[in-house]
Amino acid sequence: MHKPKIGVPIGDPAGIGPEIALKACLFDEVLSSSIPILIGDVSVLIQMIEFSQLPLSIHAIKDPSDAKDVKGIVNVVDVKSVDLKKIEFGTVSAMNGQAAFLYIKKTVELAMEKKIDAMATTPINKESLKAANVPYIGHTEILADLSNTKDPLTMFQVEKERVFFLSRHVSLRKAIYLVKKERLMDYIERSIQALERLGVKGTLAVAGLNPHNGEHGMFGSEELDEIIPAIETMQHRGFDVIGPIPADSIFALGLSGKWAAILSLYHDQGHIATKTYDFHKTISITNGMPFLRTSVDHGTALDIAGKNIANPLSMVEAIRLAAEYAHHFQSK
């Protein structure tokens, strides 16, 4: 089977991104399923290899077509954006924020040109982005703008459980306000379409908002007024969706693979459920763009950067999932 090429922008040079990207290239589950191609400064990666004494060597390339599929050799598209002498591990700086942005930008270019099959992103630092006057707050916003995507759809995966989110970075008060019939209908349709693009078949289960689905309106009417009407309407339109399922049970059942995916009604509802089960193997997948993107779901960990103790398992899983879905992914 064709090994997909997975582009890995190495993230903030002062964070753990370069370390976990390199360490992931030592794992058999990465090397057997994909050809990882790191995008970043070769000088940063050579320094990390020497510091961490990793049994790796760098193969600098200008184009992914020149990549080698050889264990111990790391393919790198050299962006050449930093002064290595000015990098201080664990610190916020404009240079590092600009570099992280340029790595992502180059990776998007390669993806849009179909030179890589998917991307798996490492952490970036919002403060460094701001210091560099990069006008985005995070990966999703950068990727959306660079790919001309209006509203990317986030999905988490941990083992057999896949979770979509009706809202992301808004207050809990606003998240509850956003639980409306029309929005639910839109996200049910988009979530099912995203699963189809990934080659996943099965039922979408919608979580409840209130304890025990509100007990027929005794403590919360959103299920009766908004959620159930949305689900019933979409069922009548032929969509394979059920619910609402009380939030205190839906995620436990989902781990068994009972449904293809779950629609969480707000950020923390799904984040807590997946990350509590397995923090390191909870992977974020961004749908709705012309290319497939997976990501670790942790930060730059500036407090441990440069100490050679960062856990690469999230990066390993992000690359592995990108490779798995790349075989099925259908762009718009």
- Name given to the CATH architecture of the largest domain: 3-Layer(aba) Sandwich
- Report the principal-axis shape: elongated
Tally of separate domains: 2
Order of helices and strands: EHHEHEEHEHHEEHHEHEHEHEEH
Low-confidence parts, pLDDT < 50 over ≥5 residues? none
Strand arrangement in the largest pleated sheet: 3-4-2-1-5-12-11-6-7-10-8-9
User: Which sheet architecture does the biggest sheet show?
Assistant: 12 strands, mixed
Distance between the ends? 24 Å
Report the C-alpha radius of gyration, rounded.
20 Å
CATH class designation of the largest domain: Alpha Beta
The percent range for helix content is 25-40%
Q: Residue-averaged pLDDT, rounded? A: 93
Q: What's the CATH H-level superfamily name of the largest domain?
A: Isopropylmalate Dehydrogenase
How many separate helices?
A: 12
Helical/strand content category = alpha/beta
Features:
332 residues; alpha/beta; Isopropylmalate Dehydrogenase; 2 domains; 12 helices; elongated
Provide structural commentary.
It is a single chain. This protein has helices at residues 17-24, 28-31, 42-52, 94-112, 126-131, 139-146, 172-177, 181-197, 222-236, 247-254, 267-277, 313-326, and strands spanning 5-9, 35-40, 57-61, 73-78, 118-121, 153-158, 161-165, 204-207, 241-245, 261-264, 283-287, 293-296. It has 332 residues and is of the alpha/beta class. The chain folds into 2 domains: 5-150 and 285-326, Isopropylmalate Dehydrogenase; 160-273, 3-Layer(aba) Sandwich (Isopropylmalate Dehydrogenase). The chain has a 12-stranded mixed sheet, sandwiched between helices. β11 and β12 form a beta hairpin. α4 packs across α6 (139-146) and α8 (181-197) crosses α9. It is elongated. The chain starts with a strand and ends in a 6-residue tail after the last helix.
